[in-house]
Write a structure and sequence with these properties.
381 residues, alpha/beta, Spore Coat Polysaccharide Biosynthesis Protein SpsA, Chain A, seven-stranded mixed β-sheet, three-stranded antiparallel β-sheet, 40% helix, globular, Glyco_trans_15, Glycosyltransferase family 15 protein
Amino acid sequence: MMTPMRYLVLVLGIIISLHFILSFSHEDYGRATSFSNIASQIKGYTGGPPYKDGVPAEYYHHEEAVAAPDRKANAAFVILARNGDLNGISSSVKQMEDRFNRKFHYPYVFLNEEPFTDDFKKQIQNIVSSKVEFGLIPHDHWFQPDTIDEKKATEARERMVKANVIYGGSVPYRNMCRYNSGFFYRHELVQKYRYYWRIEPDVSFFCDLDYDPFLVMQDQNKTYGFTVSLYEYPETIPTLWNTVKEFIQENQELLAPDNAMAFLSDDHGDTYNRCHFWSNFEIGDLDLWRGEAYSKFFDYLDAKGGFYYERWGDAPVHSIGAALFSRKDQIHFFNDIGYKHNPFQHCPQGDAHSKGKCWCNPAENFDYEWYSCLKRYDQLF
């Protein structure tokens, strides 16, 4: 019998396949001493995907004591939320605490374009085991800039609404995409950190995590970590790839050697296959976004206005940036972190499932459904 998850995957797959068929004709729219050895072992890796080698045993912290391990990364959870998201984000944070942070005690940074209420702050502080800070987003970082032609932007939104494009008529959604693409890492509360883990309301973390992903990122010189990857809706990014190609032509020296272009394109960059990492979950190196390459890249995109004239999402923007400005071995699939953001989930398989005491159904796993992009990531190696 077909499970609800597989039925949903089938239906969504049919819908996305129709998008592809219709768009192919107009592509122009388009603590151990071994720690010190890990980076050298990963660099220049030529075997299968590095995640399949597993995490070295030295990273695991099995003790149930409330004291955090002696060695930690300079990292925090970063959460963009509104006051109305309190129930959803409380659920997400409580799961994070139960699965991971009760042992590791990393701090949280909450960001909002409006001041957080006292009730919001109190409930979050009651849940977490570590320091938490609440920040206000600067006005100019959040709202639509004055350089945008509002008439043109309104017409674009109206066309998307008629075409039933998800969030097609929403300005706040566009503000959020632009903010996550180019501004969250500039916030004064985030500036002091090197690594971040993004958490959103109403997500699920299925498995106990007995090692520190931030240290994996740090010691292995990773820049970006993901759990789910898939194809973007073509109607939301009609001119994004042409804009990316223009930037590449003008700034080829900024591209990383041995980058992950092959994850994004099947023809060496001529066209975009629309693969992206689902950015509602990401563990990243903030220096990637703060660096010269991505800074110039975001500014170039922002000047084109596509966040408002179209509906460019932070997921494809982050994914393209990470793929072009990192080596391919610096992008990591966190295979042992069970995660769900409705309707898709990554449920660890085999030993990873039992080792993490995961409570998801292994049969309901998005990894290798036909419109998942994980197979393209695997093919990089």
